[in-house]
Amino acid sequence: MTRDAAANPAAVEHPAAELSNPSLESESELAFEGALRPASLAEFVGQKKVRGQLQLLLTAATMQNRTPDHILLAGPPGLGKTTLAMIVAYEGNRPLRMSSGPAIQHAGDLAAVLSSLVPGEVLFIDEIHRMARSAEEMLYLAMEDFRIDIMVGKGAGATSVPLDLAPFTLVGATTRSGLLPNPLRDRFGFTAHLEFYAENELEQVLGRAAQLIGLPIKADALAEIAGRCRGTPRIANRLLRRVRDYALVHGGAADIAAVHAALELYDVDAIGLDRLDREVMKIILTRFGGGPVGLNTLAVSVGEESETVEAVVEPFLVRIGFLTRTPRGRVATSAAWQHFGLASPPGLTIPGSATLIDL
Question: What's the family (predicted)?
Answer without folding.
Answer: Belongs to the RuvB family.
